[in-house]
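User: I've been trying to design a sequence by hand for this structure and keep getting stuck. Would you show me what you'd pick, starting by listing the structure so we're on the same page?

Assistant: Good idea, let's start from the same input. This is the structure you sent:
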Protein backbone atom coordinates (compact mmCIF):
# COMPACT_ATOMS: atom_id res chain seq x y z
CA UNK A 1 0.00 0.00 0.00
CA UNK A 2 2.83 2.36 0.92
CA UNK A 3 4.53 1.77 -2.48
CA UNK A 4 1.26 2.37 -4.33
CA UNK A 5 0.64 5.58 -2.43
CA UNK A 6 4.18 6.73 -3.17
CA UNK A 7 3.74 6.04 -6.93
CA UNK A 8 0.39 7.85 -6.93
CA UNK A 9 1.88 10.92 -5.26
CA UNK A 10 4.83 10.90 -7.63
CA UNK A 11 2.52 10.80 -10.66
CA UNK A 12 0.41 13.65 -9.25
CA UNK A 13 3.52 15.78 -8.65
CA UNK A 14 4.71 15.16 -12.22
CA UNK A 15 1.27 16.06 -13.63
CA UNK A 16 1.06 19.21 -11.50
CA UNK A 17 4.55 20.31 -12.57
CA UNK A 18 3.68 19.70 -16.24
CA UNK A 19 0.46 21.69 -15.89
CA UNK A 20 2.28 24.61 -14.30
CA UNK A 21 4.95 24.47 -17.01
CA UNK A 22 2.31 24.64 -19.74
CA UNK A 23 0.63 27.62 -18.08
CA UNK A 24 3.94 29.47 -17.68
CA UNK A 25 4.77 28.96 -21.38
CA UNK A 26 1.45 30.31 -22.67
CA UNK A 27 1.61 33.68 -24.35
CA UNK A 28 -0.33 36.27 -22.38
CA UNK A 29 -1.87 38.75 -24.77
CA UNK A 30 -3.17 42.16 -23.74
CA UNK A 31 -6.29 43.44 -25.51
CA UNK A 32 -7.14 47.14 -25.91
CA UNK A 33 -10.22 48.84 -27.30
CA UNK A 34 -9.37 51.37 -30.05
CA UNK A 35 -11.26 54.05 -31.98
CA UNK A 36 -9.93 55.52 -35.20
CA UNK A 37 -10.28 56.40 -38.88
CA UNK A 38 -8.82 54.32 -41.70
CA UNK A 39 -6.33 56.30 -43.81
CA UNK A 40 -5.22 53.58 -46.23
CA UNK A 41 -5.38 49.82 -46.77
CA UNK A 42 -2.68 47.45 -48.01
CA UNK A 43 -4.39 44.15 -48.85
CA UNK A 44 -1.16 42.46 -49.94
CA UNK A 45 0.44 43.07 -46.54
CA UNK A 46 -2.90 42.74 -44.70
CA UNK A 47 -2.46 46.10 -43.02
CA UNK A 48 -4.60 49.19 -42.49
CA UNK A 49 -3.14 52.62 -41.69
CA UNK A 50 -5.34 54.04 -38.95
CA UNK A 51 -5.40 57.43 -37.19
CA UNK A 52 -6.41 56.37 -33.69
CA UNK A 53 -7.42 58.10 -30.47
CA UNK A 54 -5.58 57.59 -27.19
CA UNK A 55 -5.28 53.91 -26.28
CA UNK A 56 -5.47 54.01 -22.46
CA UNK A 57 -2.44 52.52 -20.73
CA UNK A 58 -0.72 51.94 -24.09
CA UNK A 59 -0.08 54.96 -26.33
CA UNK A 60 -1.15 58.48 -27.24
CA UNK A 61 -3.06 59.38 -30.42
CA UNK A 62 -1.06 58.68 -33.57
CA UNK A 63 -1.32 57.30 -37.08
CA UNK A 64 0.09 53.82 -37.52
CA UNK A 65 -0.37 50.60 -39.50
CA UNK A 66 -2.24 47.72 -37.89
CA UNK A 67 -1.83 44.10 -38.96
CA UNK A 68 -5.19 42.42 -39.65
CA UNK A 69 -5.12 38.62 -39.66
CA UNK A 70 -8.70 38.02 -40.76
CA UNK A 71 -8.97 38.58 -44.52
CA UNK A 72 -12.78 38.86 -44.30
CA UNK A 73 -12.49 41.73 -41.84
CA UNK A 74 -9.93 43.46 -44.04
CA UNK A 75 -12.17 43.11 -47.12
CA UNK A 76 -15.07 44.89 -45.41
CA UNK A 77 -13.02 47.98 -44.55
CA UNK A 78 -12.83 51.12 -46.69
CA UNK A 79 -10.63 54.22 -46.58
CA UNK A 80 -12.41 56.87 -44.53
CA UNK A 81 -14.31 54.43 -42.31
CA UNK A 82 -14.61 55.41 -38.67
CA UNK A 83 -14.02 52.18 -36.77
CA UNK A 84 -13.94 50.63 -33.33
CA UNK A 85 -11.76 47.54 -32.94
CA UNK A 86 -9.63 45.50 -30.58
CA UNK A 87 -5.83 45.73 -30.63
CA UNK A 88 -4.18 42.54 -29.41
CA UNK A 89 -0.71 43.18 -28.01
CA UNK A 90 1.27 40.00 -28.56
CA UNK A 91 4.98 39.58 -27.86
CA UNK A 92 5.33 37.89 -31.25
CA UNK A 93 3.13 39.94 -33.58
CA UNK A 94 0.55 42.59 -32.51
CA UNK A 95 -2.63 42.64 -34.58
CA UNK A 96 -6.11 44.17 -34.84
CA UNK A 97 -9.44 42.34 -34.90
CA UNK A 98 -13.19 42.64 -34.20
CA UNK A 99 -13.77 45.73 -36.35
CA UNK A 100 -17.03 47.64 -36.17
CA UNK A 101 -17.69 50.37 -38.73
CA UNK A 102 -19.51 53.20 -36.94
CA UNK A 103 -19.58 55.87 -39.65
CA UNK A 104 -17.42 58.05 -41.84
CA UNK A 105 -14.31 59.69 -40.37
CA UNK A 106 -12.33 62.81 -41.29
CA UNK A 107 -9.52 62.47 -43.81
CA UNK A 108 -6.96 65.32 -44.01
CA UNK A 109 -5.75 66.58 -47.35
CA UNK A 110 -2.51 64.87 -48.31
CA UNK A 111 -1.20 66.27 -51.60
CA UNK A 112 2.57 66.07 -52.14
CA UNK A 113 2.38 68.26 -55.25
CA UNK A 114 1.12 71.31 -53.36
CA UNK A 115 3.23 70.75 -50.24
CA UNK A 116 5.67 73.52 -49.34
CA UNK A 117 9.17 72.70 -48.12
CA UNK A 118 8.34 73.98 -44.62
CA UNK A 119 4.87 72.40 -44.34
CA UNK A 120 4.16 69.85 -41.64
CA UNK A 121 4.15 66.36 -43.09
CA UNK A 122 1.25 63.96 -42.94
CA UNK A 123 1.85 60.28 -42.28
CA UNK A 124 3.23 58.69 -45.43
CA UNK A 125 4.83 61.86 -46.78
CA UNK A 126 8.59 62.04 -47.22
CA UNK A 127 11.11 64.23 -45.41
CA UNK A 128 13.44 66.32 -47.52
CA UNK A 129 17.09 65.44 -47.29
CA UNK A 130 18.94 67.83 -44.96
CA UNK A 131 22.59 68.32 -44.03
CA UNK A 132 23.68 68.89 -40.42
CA UNK A 133 26.85 68.26 -38.38
CA UNK A 134 27.68 65.12 -36.47
CA UNK A 135 29.20 65.26 -33.00
CA UNK A 136 32.59 64.75 -34.70
CA UNK A 137 32.01 68.01 -36.68
CA UNK A 138 31.68 66.17 -40.00
CA UNK A 139 28.69 66.84 -42.22
CA UNK A 140 25.93 64.26 -42.03
CA UNK A 141 22.91 63.94 -44.31
CA UNK A 142 19.58 62.52 -43.28
CA UNK A 143 19.82 60.30 -46.36
CA UNK A 144 23.06 58.77 -45.02
CA UNK A 145 20.94 56.60 -42.75
CA UNK A 146 18.30 55.70 -45.35
CA UNK A 147 17.58 52.02 -45.04
CA UNK A 148 17.08 52.37 -41.28
CA UNK A 149 14.22 53.51 -39.13
CA UNK A 150 14.98 56.75 -37.28
CA UNK A 151 13.43 58.20 -34.15
CA UNK A 152 14.22 61.93 -34.10
CA UNK A 153 13.86 64.30 -31.15
CA UNK A 154 14.92 67.92 -30.74
CA UNK A 155 17.01 69.51 -27.97
CA UNK A 156 19.22 72.50 -27.12
CA UNK A 157 21.84 72.77 -24.39
CA UNK A 158 20.68 76.19 -23.18
CA UNK A 159 17.37 74.64 -22.18
CA UNK A 160 16.61 75.99 -18.66
CA UNK A 161 14.20 73.23 -17.65
CA UNK A 162 15.59 69.89 -16.39
CA UNK A 163 12.25 68.25 -17.18
CA UNK A 164 12.57 69.14 -20.86
CA UNK A 165 15.73 68.68 -22.97
CA UNK A 166 17.76 66.72 -20.38
CA UNK A 167 14.74 64.49 -19.86
CA UNK A 168 14.45 63.95 -23.63
CA UNK A 169 18.10 62.88 -23.74
CA UNK A 170 17.59 60.37 -20.91
CA UNK A 171 14.38 59.00 -22.43
CA UNK A 172 16.11 58.63 -25.77
CA UNK A 173 18.89 56.71 -24.05
CA UNK A 174 16.30 54.43 -22.47
CA UNK A 175 14.82 53.71 -25.91
CA UNK A 176 18.26 53.18 -27.42
CA UNK A 177 19.04 50.67 -24.66
CA UNK A 178 15.70 48.92 -25.24
CA UNK A 179 16.44 48.52 -28.96
CA UNK A 180 20.18 47.99 -28.65
CA UNK A 181 19.99 44.55 -30.29
CA UNK A 182 18.08 45.88 -33.29
CA UNK A 183 20.45 46.98 -36.02
CA UNK A 184 17.98 48.80 -38.27
CA UNK A 185 16.91 51.73 -36.08
CA UNK A 186 18.83 54.81 -34.91
CA UNK A 187 17.84 57.40 -32.31
CA UNK A 188 18.76 60.91 -33.39
CA UNK A 189 18.94 64.00 -31.16
CA UNK A 190 19.00 67.23 -33.20
CA UNK A 191 19.88 70.57 -31.64
CA UNK A 192 18.01 73.47 -33.24
CA UNK A 193 20.24 76.04 -31.48
CA UNK A 194 22.17 76.99 -34.61
CA UNK A 195 24.08 79.76 -32.80
CA UNK A 196 25.48 78.07 -29.71
CA UNK A 197 25.34 74.27 -29.95
CA UNK A 198 28.58 73.49 -31.74
CA UNK A 199 29.43 69.77 -32.03
CA UNK A 200 31.99 70.28 -29.25
CA UNK A 201 29.32 71.81 -26.99
CA UNK A 202 26.97 68.91 -27.62
CA UNK A 203 29.75 66.41 -26.96
CA UNK A 204 30.66 68.16 -23.71
CA UNK A 205 27.04 68.21 -22.49
CA UNK A 206 25.79 64.84 -23.69
CA UNK A 207 28.84 62.74 -24.59
CA UNK A 208 28.95 60.97 -21.25
CA UNK A 209 25.19 60.37 -21.24
CA UNK A 210 25.21 58.50 -24.53
CA UNK A 211 28.54 56.68 -24.08
CA UNK A 212 28.19 53.08 -25.15
CA UNK A 213 25.13 53.71 -27.32
CA UNK A 214 26.20 53.37 -30.94
CA UNK A 215 22.56 53.71 -32.01
CA UNK A 216 22.29 57.29 -30.67
CA UNK A 217 23.35 60.13 -32.96
CA UNK A 218 23.60 63.79 -31.90
CA UNK A 219 23.51 66.40 -34.66
CA UNK A 220 24.40 70.10 -34.54
CA UNK A 221 22.72 72.74 -36.71
CA UNK A 222 25.42 75.43 -36.45
CA UNK A 223 25.71 77.00 -39.90
CA UNK A 224 22.73 74.93 -41.08
CA UNK A 225 19.75 77.13 -40.24
CA UNK A 226 17.73 76.38 -43.37
CA UNK A 227 18.23 72.63 -43.01
CA UNK A 228 17.29 72.39 -39.34
CA UNK A 229 14.31 74.73 -39.76
CA UNK A 230 13.00 72.60 -42.63
CA UNK A 231 13.46 69.39 -40.60
CA UNK A 232 11.74 70.82 -37.52
CA UNK A 233 8.85 72.29 -39.52
CA UNK A 234 8.29 69.10 -41.50
CA UNK A 235 8.23 67.25 -38.16
CA UNK A 236 5.36 69.50 -37.05
CA UNK A 237 7.39 71.72 -34.71
CA UNK A 238 8.74 75.27 -34.61
CA UNK A 239 11.33 77.37 -32.77
CA UNK A 240 12.21 81.06 -32.44
CA UNK A 241 14.32 83.54 -30.46
CA UNK A 242 17.69 81.82 -30.99
CA UNK A 243 19.40 85.04 -32.11
CA UNK A 244 18.33 86.92 -28.95
CA UNK A 245 18.84 84.00 -26.58
CA UNK A 246 15.12 84.00 -25.79
CA UNK A 247 14.39 80.60 -27.22
CA UNK A 248 10.85 79.33 -27.56
CA UNK A 249 9.68 76.19 -29.27
CA UNK A 250 6.87 73.75 -29.99
CA UNK A 251 8.45 70.43 -30.82
CA UNK A 252 7.57 66.92 -31.86
CA UNK A 253 9.45 63.65 -31.92
CA UNK A 254 9.01 61.62 -35.08
CA UNK A 255 9.54 58.09 -36.32
CA UNK A 256 10.52 57.89 -39.97
CA UNK A 257 10.82 54.89 -42.24
CA UNK A 258 13.88 53.55 -44.09
CA UNK A 259 12.52 55.47 -47.11
CA UNK A 260 12.39 58.69 -45.05
CA UNK A 261 8.59 58.71 -44.77
CA UNK A 262 6.79 59.90 -41.64
CA UNK A 263 5.34 56.96 -39.75
CA UNK A 264 4.32 58.48 -36.40
CA UNK A 265 4.84 61.53 -34.21
CA UNK A 266 4.63 62.46 -30.53
CA UNK A 267 3.97 66.02 -29.36
CA UNK A 268 6.15 67.96 -26.92
CA UNK A 269 8.83 66.70 -24.57
CA UNK A 270 6.60 64.90 -22.08
CA UNK A 271 6.01 61.75 -24.09
CA UNK A 272 6.18 58.52 -22.12
CA UNK A 273 8.95 56.13 -23.06
CA UNK A 274 6.72 53.07 -22.72
CA UNK A 275 4.19 54.55 -25.16
CA UNK A 276 6.88 55.40 -27.69
CA UNK A 277 8.56 52.03 -27.22
CA UNK A 278 5.36 50.18 -27.97
CA UNK A 279 4.58 52.56 -30.83
CA UNK A 280 7.94 51.82 -32.46
CA UNK A 281 7.48 48.09 -31.94
CA UNK A 282 4.01 48.15 -33.44
CA UNK A 283 4.79 50.37 -36.43
CA UNK A 284 7.96 48.55 -37.46
CA UNK A 285 7.64 45.16 -35.73
CA UNK A 286 8.09 42.97 -38.81
CA UNK A 287 10.91 45.06 -40.27
CA UNK A 288 13.40 45.60 -37.44
CA UNK A 289 16.50 43.52 -38.07
CA UNK A 290 17.94 41.44 -35.25
CA UNK A 291 21.49 40.14 -35.09
CA UNK A 292 21.73 36.49 -36.10
CA UNK A 293 22.94 35.37 -32.69
CA UNK A 294 19.90 36.73 -30.81
CA UNK A 295 17.26 34.28 -29.66
CA UNK A 296 13.65 35.45 -29.82
Amino acid sequence: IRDSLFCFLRIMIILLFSFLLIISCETKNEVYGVKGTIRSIDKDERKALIAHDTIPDLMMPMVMPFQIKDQKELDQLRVGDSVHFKFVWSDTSPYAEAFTIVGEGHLPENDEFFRGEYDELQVGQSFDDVTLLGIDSNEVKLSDSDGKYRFISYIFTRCPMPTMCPAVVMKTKYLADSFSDYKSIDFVLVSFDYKYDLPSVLRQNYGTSIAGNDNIKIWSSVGKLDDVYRLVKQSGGDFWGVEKNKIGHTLRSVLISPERKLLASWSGEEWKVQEVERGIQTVSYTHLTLPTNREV
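That's my pick for every position. To get oriented when you compare it with your attempt: Confidence is low (pLDDT under 50) at residues 19-26, 289-296. The chain is about 25% helix and 30% strand.
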